[in-house]
Write the structure tokens for this entry.
Amino acid sequence: MRTTDVAVIGGGPAGLSAAISAASLGAKVTLIDRNDRLGGQLIKQTHMFFGSQKQHASVRGVDISGILEEQLSKYKDNVEVLLNATVLGLYEDGVVTIEQGEEKYFKIKPKAMVIATGASEKVLPFPNNDLPGIYGAGAVQTLMNVYGVAPGDRALMVGAGNIGLIVSYQLMQAGVKVAAIIDAAPKIGGYLVHASKIRRMGVPIYTSYTVKEAIGKDSLEKAVIVQLDEKWQPVPGTERELDVDVMCISIGLSPLAELLWQADCEMKYVPELGGYVPARDEEYQTTVKGIYVAGDVSGVEEASAAMVEGQLAGLCAAKNLGFTSPDFEARRQDCIDQLNTLRSGPVGAKIRAGLEKLLG
Amino acid sequence: MLEKTGIPTEEQLKEVTPSKERLSRGPVAIIECFQEIPCNPCYTSCSTGAIKELVDINEKPEVDFDKCNGCGICISNCPGLAIFVVDESYSEDKALIKLPYEFLPLPEKGDMVKALDRSGQVVGQAEVVKVVNSKAQDRTPVIWIAVDKELSMRVRNIEMGV
């Protein structure tokens, strides 16, 4: 059977970083991604990243993907990349089954693995939420920035977190009008600089609003929004009808943790981290020895943190197999320090509360 | 209020606005970043040392208006597009504003465009004085516009057309 030292499942910011750091210690790495190119969600992120230089601040996400791929290519002698390859199962004996393309099905037995499968968009229940024209905001970002397709003419953004604010801006860049951004919470959840830059383009932001219903025959024609009171209950008579043919739902992400459940990792429900997330130690090793996690699957957070988590998990996965380097301890500590710094401010409070619950 | 609308309050703006005297002396950076977020490219990109070191990366940036020469390098390095340069010494009745603009088509020198405030309302007209779009700016062009002097602290965006 095919073997490898570290199998990394998912080639987004966390997985790429994990593969680079594990390979840098000399481990043989197999990086597996279901898409036809590496980068995960980075490839559609045309905005500049926050953070510090270590996390490529001020560089656009799509370019960070290129930087990481180039770093990975330095280790091409001990890195194998499997694209169009979906991991179907993790078995008790440590075997990973993979479907590649539509023809190939094979097994691989890694000595350790880093699961970096990311997260998926949450959906919002309301009448007619299945009408064509209603998308996840991330899906619209892919449609526009990867495939060059505008989703429609006039959009309603549901959710004023960072994804909602950023995708609203990118819709405007693509020539799509944004009728409004609404959020059920009483305050804007995303970075306020993102809110200000879309506000000064004339896009209104309505907090304490939600979608009452979508209206349309064959596709979305109108959205009805309604104000919420302090108890998040609709206020009768506050309904407003918006003429939109696109609605983007951006109310949060759920970790894509199916493989972790299969592997019997201990899972905990932590709403602050997006739902069910794996219990893990400081090195991002789950309760199943040799299975590490990084990025959104271990708790939904910014991509800057995902990259550092990936570096840490990759380093530790390789180290615990016997690979090392003189600067291992310094690099490991640097990752931990970077994560603490990124999470230390007021906007990191939710993540810190979630990690407190997870790690106890 | 900023957390509900995306528009900073007068009090918040007062905290980051240079004195009338400093504004009249020449170009100066104004950073409209009112939230502690983990981010520091403004500080690392500043070559005059005018943007104070962010010892904790979550600190809000602070500009030493006496050291700032209004070069504007920070404008296209700010991931939040929250930095503007204002120069009230530009002419008798006009002020110059340098602002980030990531939309196509780009305006051209000499164009008259709509001048928008922080809520996107049209508050006047602006003349495009220069369009700076170097490789170092990495696809965040900076547009220099001249507006009536009394609008120097109100105009923060443009829209094509008059």
Observations:
- Chain B is about 15% helix and 25% strand.
- The radius of gyration of chain B is 15 Å.
